[in-house]
Amino acid sequence: MPGETKYKIYIAVHKGDPVDFSKFRHTGLWCVPDDGSSHYYFHVKGLTGAFAFGRRKNFDPTTSRTFAKKVRVGKTQHPLSSSELSRQMESVDVLNHDAEFNCQQWVDFALRTLYHAGYLSGEQYDTGLNGMIDATMEAEDEMLA
C-alpha cells in the first residue's frame, strides 16, 4: 500500500544520569524507514510511577550526549505505515502502578507487541532483548556500586 515501508528497528541505550548504573540506563526504540521518510524514536519518560509515552519524529538518538550504544533488532517482516507503527507503540502498556516498571521493561513490551503483530520474528525479539540487556550491563559506574 502507498505510504507503507519496512523499518529497521534499533534499541538506543543511553548512559544513566547522574551515575551510569545499569538500572539507570535509558532505552527506547528507534525506527528507521527503508524509504528515507521520517524516522521515529519511541520511549517512556519520567519518574517511577509517573512515566509517560513519548514519540519523537526525526530524532537521531545517536547524537545525544548520553548515547551509549545502538542495538540492532532487525527489519520489520512486512511494510507498515508510520501511523500504524505509532498505533502499535501507543498500545504498549505503561505500568505506572508497578514500582519496578522502567523504560527497559517498556522496550521489552514494545518488542513483544511488534512480534505479536507479526512485524518481528521471535529471533529478532530475542536478539533485541538480549542485546539491550547486554548494553545496559556495560554501564561504566556499575563497578562503583
Word description of this protein:
InterPro entries: DUF6540. Strands 5-4-3-2-6 form a 5-stranded antiparallel beta sheet, with helices on one face. The protein has a two-stranded antiparallel ribbon with strand order 1-7. It has one domain (4-144). Helices cover 26% and strands 28% of the residues. Helix 2 packs antiparallel against helix 3 (122-136). With 145 residues, it is α+β, with helices and mostly antiparallel strands. The radius of gyration is 15 Å and the shape is globular. The chain has 3 helices and 7 strands, in the order E-E-E-E-E-E-E-H-H-H. 31% of the residues are buried. The model has no long low-confidence stretch (mean pLDDT 95). The termini are far apart.
Labels describing this entry:
two-stranded antiparallel ribbon, 3 helices, 145 residues, single chain, DUF6540, five-stranded antiparallel beta sheet
Summarize the structure.
The protein has 145 residues and is an alpha+beta fold. It has helices spanning 82-90, 103-116, 122-136, and strands at 4-5, 7-14, 26-33, 40-45, 52-57, 67-75, 80-81. The strands form 2 sheets. A 5-stranded antiparallel beta sheet has the order 5-4-3-2-6, covered by helices on one side. It has a two-stranded antiparallel ribbon with strand order 1-7.
**In one word, what is the shape?**
globular
User: End-to-end distance, in Å?
Assistant: 52 Å
User: How do the strands of the widest beta sheet line up side by side?
Assistant: 5-4-3-2-6
**Using only CA atoms, what is the Rg?**
15 Å
Structural class: alpha+beta
Helix proportion: 25-40%
